[in-house]
Amino acid sequence: MAANEITIPLKGLELAGKLDLPPAARGLVLFAHGSGSSRHSPRNQFVARTLREGKMGTLLLDLLTAEEEQAEIYSRRLRFNIPFLAGRLVGATRWALNQAASRDLDVGYFGASTGAAAALVAAAELGETIGAVVSRGGRPDLAGEALPRVTAPTLLIVGGDDRPVIPLNEEAYDRLHCEKALRLVPGASHLFEEAGALEKVAGMAAEWFANHLRPMTE
Description:
Rossmann fold; eight-stranded mixed beta sheet
């Protein structure tokens, strides 16, 4: 398996990421982290490991540079700037699709918190390039006017005890016109810290991507 800490060159900057490609990968899932998180998030790393067990490649990336992350501690300007984050994700996706190792892979997005909104806006922009989207405890409502334009099959996963976020996901679900599903994890809070909750999230995500991302062409 190729496992690399990588840098993704965009216009005038570089984003940090971790790319893992199992042999004969069935697809590549890019992780869009939420506010205050990074590619080192233990929750997303857990989900990524589960996806790789199902022969999915994973790319965990930081949508902000180290300097921007440092500034965010004080300014908090960028973490809710969904168009900005989505633009970074689109750029990273185009970079990944230009690499020899992942050129023939179907691409999906796994988004958490505000990263879910960025993933949906990016999916709307890239259209059929994106094969599937999964949101974990996300704020898909922040994708706004992009929601009706999403064509990728989209799964929204919310903790059953995450009361403030459930109606926001229901609102976003109603505005999606693609194949879609909204699933609650009983007894789970926003971060899915309860015993077995994150395993359920990872299993749902793995099934969704397995059903919607095509294997690598021969």
